[in-house]
Amino acid sequence: MAVGTEAAPDTTAQRLGIVAHSDGPFVPVQTRSERPKSTLHDDFAAVEAWQTEWKLTPIDRIRDLIDGPLDGSPYPIQYPDVAHTTVEWIDRTDARIGSAGIPEERAAANGWSSFEKALRIAIEGEPESLTVTRAAMGSAARAAHVLVEAAPQSKGLVILDSRGSAALTENVEIVVGEGAHLTVVSLQEWDDDARHLASHFASIGKDGKLTHIVVSLGGSIVRVNPSAHLAGEGSDAELLGVYFADAGQHLEQRVYVHHDAPHTRSRVTYKGALNGEGARTVWVGDVLIGPRAVGTDTYEQNRNLVLSEGTRADSIPNLEIQTGDIVGAGHASATGRFDDEHLFYLQSRGIPEAEARRLVVLGFLIEVVQRIPEPVLQARLVSALVAELEGAA
């Protein structure tokens, strides 16, 4: 009698023998890489407050950005003429669209389904820094798509500077070519009424390095979800963030790093401060070390400084390892108030209490700002943080 051979299970749920719940067909996703992906809004279930991706987000305040119609036409931008860089609008059917990643949730898919043209920013060689400013997005619900490409062996800095009013759902793709070193700064200095949902997808080639820095200071609700796919051997990712939440402000970051090739490295550092009634921050960090990613070296951390009563900081680090052959992996999270010893030390040197507090907070946050390789922008952000701290005094 011939003996049949069953097909090998091809998902984590099948390998673990997980079946549908008795009260419905739902089977939990067992690994971060198996989340559903699609560029179509209707391929995702309706957003509900109990869902893992949305339970910490005030979805009623952004429902129109998740499900409503979005204006996907090109918008006003400003940028200098920098040699060895290209800034252009390309059609949504361009073959380069989708090369870094595609949405894993409904809001990002709504933005993807709605944009008409993508803003392409390309660098070659070693150009000077390039700043692209968006300051006239308007208050109507809008979709946007940005593609940043670093040619193989290139080295550059791209700053995406967002200001003014906005109701924006966008996707940002970042493609780092083989051996390229790219720094991308995403600066959210929106007006107080702005709402902004963004998903960033980065793909890093062999021996490439991406430094990705998120700075969120303005806006009513700002949710930026960066993901980095270390796709080539020896690729490297530094994902950094700094944020300051005022009364009633919601600032959210969900970071995902996927080590998918051998001998890759990543570091994630996000720091934030909260002040005022209803100030809220959310940070979720996911690191997945895939079965091929031998020799991985990774560490993620989130630190929050609470400056007043009535604030809330959620910080959730996650680490998933699918191979035993790694250099190191770890994560850390901490939320707390001032270090009284630092405060006492400064006051004992004759510094008034209010000034001492500002110095302690600025020293806490400045670590990330100093990683931006652009002195003019550094100075501008230090001034913005000082202004925030003046309001916290």
Automatic annotation (TrEMBL):
It comes from the Bacteria. Residues 140-364 form the SUF system FeS cluster assembly SufBD core domain. GO terms for biological process: iron-sulfur cluster assembly. InterPro entries: Fe-S_cluster_assembly_SufBD, SUF_FeS_clus_asmbl_SufBD_core, SUF_FeS_clus_asmbl_SufBD_sf, SUF_FeS_clus_asmbl_SufD. It holds the Pfam family SUFBD_core. Belongs to the iron-sulfur cluster assembly SufBD family. This is Fe-S cluster assembly protein SufD.
